[in-house]
Amino acid sequence: MELYSLTAHELIKKLGEKEISVEDLNSSVRKRIQDKDPQVKAYVRLSGSKAAVDFKTLNNGPLAGIPVSIKDNICTQGYNTECCSKILSGFKPPYDATVIQKLKNAGANILDTKTNMDEFAFGSSTENSCFGPTHNPWDLDRVPGGSSGGSAAAVAGDEAILAIGSDTGGSIRQPAAFCGVVGLKPTYGRVSRYGLIAFASSLDQIGTFTKDIEDACILMNVISGHDPMDATSVDIPVPDYLGSAGKDIKGLKIGIPKEYFVEGMDPEVKKIIFEAVAKLKDLGAIVKDISLPHTEYAVPVYYILGTAEASSNLARFDGVQYGYRAKSTNLIAMYKKTRGEGFGQEAKRRILLGTFALSHGYYDAYYLKALKVRTLIKNDFDSVFKDCDCIVTPTAPTTAFKIGEKAENPLQMYLSDIYTISANLSGLPAISVPCGFSKNRLPVGLQILAKAFDEETLFRAGSAYERATQWRKEKPKL
Ligand code: GLN
After folding, report:
1. Index of the ligand 1 atom closest to the CA of residue 170
2. Are 143 and 32 in contact (CB under 8 A)?
3. pTM of structure
4. Is the CB–ligand 1 distance for residue 122 below 6 Å?
5. CA–CA separation, 290 vs 260, rounded Å?
6. 199 Cα to the center of ligand 1, angstroms
7. Around Cβ 398, how many Cβ atoms within 10 Å?
8. Which residue in 83, 149, 240, 452 has its CB near the most CB atoms, within 10 A?
């Protein structure tokens, strides 16, 4: 078995027993990236002046020697962090994001190269990157999902052991489902967002991509916790997540929302999800039908609030402080030219939409109304969780689509987030776990949602399901 194909927990054991060295592991991962990334394109700027991946010196710690791949919107001191946007080209942050600092303290090897993403995390396919699309390792003609498609494809293609992404409306879970890996969006406030370049501040959350649940627990043990640098991070104790991974699910109450199985969803996905639910029942869970009546409003509410916040967050990119600056004769013209040349099409679309939603005269009609409906969506979850420990749904309505298939139709693209957005609007933790394959061998993901700060239930249910199935052992033929 090649080292790059193992999980972090398997590698930690081998390193601990001195069966392998950190250099063995580094060269295995490095070689895999060199061999496979020309097809997958999970990483960006690989062919710059630094032709190969460089690994740093390590500390001792729970992740000592384990390589971790980072999405291009998380600040790494002295190394390019560009959100896959021309407007941030050449930007080298003067500081590390808190998650990077925590990973370094745990001894992790942070890769200098970053994983590909939709520009500023706007998208569901990783096609909106200024570096071009990432390819799904299961079928290179298809998208890996987005916006953290590079992180998902890197883990699925064994070009990464662990990866970090961000999830504003599904950007970890949907690509995890499309690529057949485990993707976790923690509770809003559980993991510091200091150093995450903001898309929509009330929705953004940093989370993990791993080959199995145990690795997700290990990674969450390292990156979770209160951070005084992030006013939205919450000061409550972090449990040892590994404790929940081995438990059974006898008596666990699981809700299945009827609104998530509507017309438009791929019948193959539906069948696979129902098989997974039957498996959870076999394992002793109590499954019941529930209703989340405001689900149909999640997508429109998200695209009003998300674009409004994005338009405001992106106002800082004007050619003065960061990255790209267009040449011009006066200041105002420089702002305009920089933004006109620096932002891609989807970023411009969102800035326009968000500015419109926030403008005088429309604020009450759109933004304020969306905020109110957001509360109704959250209330739906609160009432269901009075009587359920978790909720199970599909992660996405379809399997991975073809590159180019939805690129010209933003509305259709927005609908691929239909099952993931509500967790962000409500701040809840949610995970996508591989649960099968379509006839054309494309992965399907099972989404599990739990109460705020109850990631443990996600790990408990996810790991019980994982132990009872073999999906995680399947690998794409690259
Ligand atoms: N696909 C969604 C969007 O385009 C979610 C993106 C994300 O979670 N960053 O906004």
Report:
1. 8
2. no
3. 0.97
4. yes
5. 10
6. 9
7. 18
8. 149
Instruction: Measure CA 119 to chain center.
Output: 14
Evaluate: CB of 150 within 6 angstroms of ligand 1.
no
Helix (H) or strand (E) holding 215: helix 213-223
What does the pLDDT look like over 314-345, one tens digit per residue?
999 999 999 999 999 999 999 999 999 999 99
Atom of ligand 1 nearest to the CA of 302: 10
The rounded Å distance from CA 436 to ligand 1 centre is 24
Amino acid at 471: W
Q: Is 319 exposed, middle or buried (0-12, 13-18, 19+ CB in 10 A)?
A: buried
Mean pLDDT of the chain: 95
**Does the pLDDT value for residue 437 go beyond 90?**
yes
Coil, helix or strand at residue 408: coil
426 counts as catalytic: no
Degrees to nearest 5, angle at CA 96 with 90 and 101: 150
Question: Does the annotation mark 27 as catalytic?
Answer: no
- pLDDT for res 58: 54
- Asked if 187 and 170 touch (Cβ cutoff 8 Å), the reply is no
Of the chain, the percentage scoring pLDDT greater than 70 comes to: 97
- Domains, the chain, in order of start with CATH, read 3-249+429-473 (3.90.1300.10)
Its sign, for the CA torsion 331, 337, 343, 346, is positive
